[in-house]
């Protein structure tokens, strides 16, 4: 029986740890924060889990927020411009968004109940080798900030040197959910996107507004404005920007009720989308495998990061369960098995961050008229590899639309 | 609906053509021999199909020789030396060997009945581009001899510059099948192997003896001896070599009945194991994908070539059915999807052709004592990727045996 060390108790580390514990594999997770610190802390993100991730949760017995009750079933698209587009795509299986400050502590607790060993303490890069000495394999899933020197950036999948969006995400009262309940993806050409997400948090059902602002655009200020300096100004600014750029969401806002659920429920910042090496051999001969954001950071625009991290955890876990060694051959196999989903999520997201090529604009226009195409596009949020096969080239988008009886405009 | 061109009507081309016809995809197979020429010709090989290939045949509705009646269920191992080893490994699902002079013409006929277009005529490399102009994709499955300049050799998977075995394969009367009916794999260290295969041919149930002779060894002469010059000498020499090197098969031979089923039922030669590039872009922009022996030639020692070719055909066929373009992205996806099986078959075979490292000798010794390990090893003839994960390193073999409660000697 192998003995596995995991660094980081995010979704990647926990899904892997729980899968291994289900099969009685000894696992230690090393992480820098207690579940209590996570639970009491600032908003971490506004993660939606798609159907394949929810299925993994059911398999692990950690589906504490059943999708039927907490989930949603569609994407509402709004594309601004002189002739705005409005269309809906339905998922064949629902998604859901649970505040990670509820989700991660609960899964950490279950991990410990199921015999997982949890060690609290921040590690530095030079500590990883010592950890490795106590395990057959180390999985580094400590997020996008730590241990980056272990896993060099892969330029062929990392086209950007700087953030492409300046983020402002908060949880709000005062937004009536869309009908049917879904995520609204609102695009303001040249300025960025708003993702409006029905989320379950400590305050119950609330709305996450994730502003994906193009640097230099009219909305970028939202990433800088300090709530604590002047809460009223912040709220007013958000409202006016939504009114101007994201009218479909604005329509469902009651200005009198509109406010952040708490000063802690706001996160502002930016990240550089980066794909790193899959693994590294440590000086002692043990291999360290990168997973989740430690392996591939994507902009949250398409909600792929955590789902990709969970997929990666699953591939790693199953490989651990059925392989015989934790050598370079093992790491290469994992790299190959997860590459379709993980790299496609990165490539698709990176394409959508850039000024849209003609075939993407054409696809949006076509989906506005063709519900079946919009449904398949929406379902492919669950399968980024399928989506990438559609959007990678104009010819492919043309073939996709032809399948749905539509011509690329 | 794409339109696919296939060069070569071997197992790769036919399995792909039949899969595509099952889904009404227009397919043309270009090949240099008529089914009648194949049927009336010299022995082509002594191919055994393993369970995954038989399953594909059932899926295609070309299971004309049901495995229950024509198949076999195990491998009998004999390893010569001062203390010979004798052990059996059972398959969980049977294999079978049907003379390709029955098999290929029958499948070609069915391909045509199902609307496949068959064009007879030898193509040269410079003709491929013209063919490509009439299709969305060309699959080159014309065996190991033709079009090699299109697909460069990949040295990292092609360790040999010359044949590692000198082959002599013939169909014989006068060999009583083993009990239970199976393939006997007999090893004469330093001289080579004999594969004794229960085969169905025009003469009914016969025995294929495939001598895999190490160049310079005592058996290498079998690849040179001309049957037609002196049939009696040939038969006598074969008999005496079997008696000396492969005693377990010899025991089941009735010398009075022992003879080739026909002068045509003999094939002598040698091949250089070679893995080539997965695909090439033709000058007109169409892609040519290599499949089967055109992509990877393995020595027949472990019976992997045709099964790997069929697997590759399947991967290609399914990718054609579910993808939207036949560009480089398509070819790279096929390359990735088939790499586990195809490259592992090559790597495992190439390892077994060389003087055995200590861990392989240890594995043989351990399987002699441990039936469960021998069964898993045998079943993995169906799954060369799993086998390669066991034999690639001594540590992995040790872990495999540990799983079966045995220590690597
Ligand atoms: C605003 C926003 C919205 C998002 N929306 C979505 C979405 O809708 N869908 C989606 O799939 N993804 C989304 N994402 C992305 C998602 O949040 C991440 O991809 C995912 O959480 C990464 O998980 P992880 O396990 O790799 O890393 P993390 O969740 O970052 O976990 C890292 C872990 O390592 C620990 N750690 C860090 N440093 C150390 C150290 N030095 N020593 C020990 N432990 C350490 C941390 O405490 C933590 O436990 C969003 C991200 C943001 C910012
Ligand atoms: C003795 C022996 C035993 C074997 N035993 C096994 C075994 O037990 N199990 C196993 O899996 N594999 C075995 N193999 C390997 C197996 O035979 C091959 O891997 C397999 O047949 C390759 O199939 P293919 O479709 O790629 O090519 P082929 O079967 O070689 O087919 C090539 C096709 O292309 C046509 N063609 C060739 N040149 C041209 C041209 N210029 N223009 C047009 N058409 C052309 C040919 O006529 C033929 O139709 C054995 C091989 C040998 C030699």
From TrEMBL, chains A, B:
Pfam family, one: Smoa_sbd
Gene3D superfamilies assigned to the protein according to its UniProt record, in alphabetical order: 3.30.9.40, 6.10.250.650, FAD/NAD(P)-binding domain (3.50.50.60)
InterPro entries, alphabetized: FAD/NAD-bd_sf, StyA_sbd
UniProt protein name: Styrene monooxygenase StyA putative substrate binding domain-containing protein
Stretches assigned to the Styrene monooxygenase StyA putative substrate binding domain: 143-252
């Amino acid at each position: 029986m192998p003995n596995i060390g995991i660094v980081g108790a995010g979704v990647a580390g926990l899904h892997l740890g729980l899968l291994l514990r289900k099969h009685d594999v000894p696992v230690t997770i090393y992480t820098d924060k207690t579940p209590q610190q996570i639970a009491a802390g600032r908003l971490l993100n506004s993660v939606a889990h798609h159907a394949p991730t929810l299925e993994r949760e059911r398999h692990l017995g950690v589906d504490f927020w059943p999708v039927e009750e907490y989930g949603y079933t569609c994407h509402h698209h709004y594309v601004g411009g002189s002739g705005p587009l409005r269309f809906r795509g339905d998922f064949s299986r629902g998604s859901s968004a649970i505040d990670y400050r509820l989700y991660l502590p609960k899964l950490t607790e279950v991990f410990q109940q199921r015999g997982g060993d949890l060690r609290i303490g921040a590690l530095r890069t030079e500590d990883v080798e010592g950890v490795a000495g106590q395990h057959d394999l180390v999985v580094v899933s400590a997020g996008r900030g730590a241990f980056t020197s272990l896993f060099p950036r892969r330029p062929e999948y990392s086209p950007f040197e700087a953030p492409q969006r300046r983020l402002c995400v908060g949880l709000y009262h005062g937004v009536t959910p869309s009908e049917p309940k879904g995520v609204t993806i609102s695009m303001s050409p040249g300025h960025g996107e708003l993702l409006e997400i029905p989320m379950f948090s400590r305050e119950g059902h609330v709305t996450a507004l994730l502003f994906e602002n193009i640097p230099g655009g009219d909305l970028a200020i939202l990433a800088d404005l300090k709530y604590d300096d002047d809460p009223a100004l912040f709220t007013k600014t958000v409202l006016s920007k939504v009114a101007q750029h994201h009218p479909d969401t604005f329509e469902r806002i009651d200005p009198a009720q509109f406010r952040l659920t708490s000063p802690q429920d706001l996160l502002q910042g930016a990240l550089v989308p980066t794909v790193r090496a899959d693994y590294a051999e440590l000086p002692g001969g043990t291999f360290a495998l990168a997973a989740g954001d430690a392996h591939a950071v994507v902009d949250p625009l398409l909600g792929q990061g955590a789902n990709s991290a969970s997929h990666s955890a699953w591939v790693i876990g199953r490989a651990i369960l059925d392989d015989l060694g934790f050598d370079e051959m093992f790491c290469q196999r994992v790299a190959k098995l997860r590459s379709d989903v993980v790299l496609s999520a990165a490539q698709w997201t990176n394409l959508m961050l850039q000024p849209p090529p003609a075939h993407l604009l054409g696809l949006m226009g076509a989906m506005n008229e063709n519900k079946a195409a919009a449904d398949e596009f929406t379902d492919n949020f669950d399968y980024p590899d399928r989506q990438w096969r559609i959007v990678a080239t104009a010819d492919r988008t043309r073939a996709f639309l032809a399948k749905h009886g539509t011509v690329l405009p």
